[in-house]
Write a structure and sequence with these properties.
By secondary structure, the chain is of the alpha+beta class. It is built from 16 helices and eleven strands. It starts with a helix and ends with a helix.
Length: about 425
């Protein structure tokens, strides 16, 4: 077995440049796969983390109204049943305290924030923008959200102490031309009230930063003429991945519409999946091309080393030994190329972190969001293993079919 390793290595280094290019192709394919997965999955996790910290895992809102259906059984008796097909809604939550108490009894629920949402127009005196106002109770909302971490101007304490306080998204603040301490007029249903900007936040998701304002819940009720009702619950849970199943339980048990973050953001999650899939396919093509190069190199090696292989057979080496020698060459290329690719992938991912990249669009950031996962390295290694296996199998079988007599007569292959 040891001699097979030595022979495999010596045959491999006889085509130095070809094998070097093959190793480089394998390493670059592994590195690009790792970097692509780190960047695309990092962006997805950043978006999910922001959404969970801003909108919660589950939104529990309008009450479901059962509809009556009549039917006749086998004995001709009329039967009336209730169903939720079509889902008729009664707007808002009638008894928030009773519903809150019921929700808290479900396992996995971490906290509940009562939110009143409405549309208004914000004016700074010069500029006017349509906005979505969220009325919150800061005692319940701040511990369950990331607002305190997302503030770039002002402070949570300033908002808590000011009944007329307002939290404004960074993009919206720039559009209105306001900063902390400035006043903003909010108009809704012919009702206009003035509020003072006590904080500017930036979630990194532009759709939120350009449209959303936060007020104290009592002030929002006055602005929208809703002295009671009209709210929804923003629920945070211990395991965000279980949000869909818990939302179904809440809806079936409590009779209120429950929407998980996976359903709410399904379009964007599909887009992220498509980006990750397409980038993986493109990078796998690089690995496949490296595999083709490896196949050609090993096939030419078999043609060039027929006489040497025939001598080995004449010395007592079996077909299995010859096949093993070429399989070991594949193992060497796989191990060296994968390890080199892992190193290049780690260095490339580190380099991406320090590239000055100002992101704008769906999300906003000053540097790429990256995900470091062992799975990325293992998946890249698995893809290379499959490619190397098929690239080395055919030349190995071809070499094993050589007969010493045929080579001497010049009729081999």
């Amino acid at each position: 077995m040891q001699s097979n390793w030595i022979i495999a290595w010596r045959l491999l280094v006889t085509r130095k440049w070809a094998m070097a290019l093959t190793l480089l192709g394998v390493a670059l394919g592994v590195a690009l796969f790792i970097m692509a997965q780190a960047e695309t999955q990092g962006l997805e996790r950043f978006f999910v983390r922001t959404v969970l910290g801003t909108n919660g895992a589950i939104r529990l809102g309008d009450r479901l109204q059962d509809t009556l259906h009549s039917s006749t059984d086998e004995e001709g008796l009329l039967a009336i049943t209730t169903t939720r097909e079509g889902k008729l809604y009664v707007q808002g939550i009638d008894d928030p305290e009773a519903l809150r108490s019921a929700v808290q009894r479900f396992s996995g629920v971490k906290g509940i924030s009562e939110v009143l949402e409405g549309q208004a127009r914000a004016s700074s005196g010069i500029y006017t923008e349509p906005v979505t106002v969220h009325g919150i109770m800061w005692e319940a909302h701040f511990p369950l959200s990331s607002l305190d971490e997302q503030l770039v101007q002002g402070s949570v304490a300033s908002f808590k102490e000011a009944p007329e306080g307002l939290l404004c998204g960074s993009f919206l603040a720039r559009r209105l031309g306001v900063r902390v301490g400035d006043w903003v007029d909010l108009t809704s249903n012919a009702e206009s009230r003035r509020y003072r900007v006590t904080g500017v936040y930036e979630t990194g998701v532009e759709d939120i930063d350009r449209n959303r304002l936060y007020l104290h819940l009592p002030e929002a009720r006055v602005l929208f003429h809703r002295p009671y009702g009209g709210v929804y619950f923003q629920i945070t849970i211990d395991d965000p991945k279980a949000a869909t199943a818990l939302a179904v339980q809440l809806e079936d048990t409590l009779g209120h519409h429950a929407l998980s973050w996976q359903e709410r953001e399904q379009v964007w999650l599909d887009i992220f999946w498509l980006i990750r899939f397409s980038s993986s396919v493109l990078v796998c093509m690089v690995i496949l091309l490296a595999g083709v190069g490896m196949f050609n190199s090993l096939a030419l090696l078999v043609l060039e080393k027929q006489r040497e292989l025939a001598i080995l057979r004449a010395m007592g080496y079996t077909r299995k030994d010859v096949r093993q020698i070429f399989a070991l060459q594949g193992v060497m290329i796989y191990v060296i190329g994968t390890l080199l690719g892992w190193a290049l992938g780690a260095l490339g991912t580190c380099a991406l972190k320090y590239i000055p990249l100002r992101l704008r669009g769906l999300w906003v950031g000053e540097e790429p969001a990256l995900a470091w996962e062992v799975d990325h390295y293992l998946t890249a290694a698995l893809i290379v293993a499959v490619v190397v296996f098929f690239a080395s199998t055919i030349p190995a079988r071809r070499a094993a079919r050589l007969e010493p007599g045929q080579v001497i007569r010049g009729s081999a292959l």
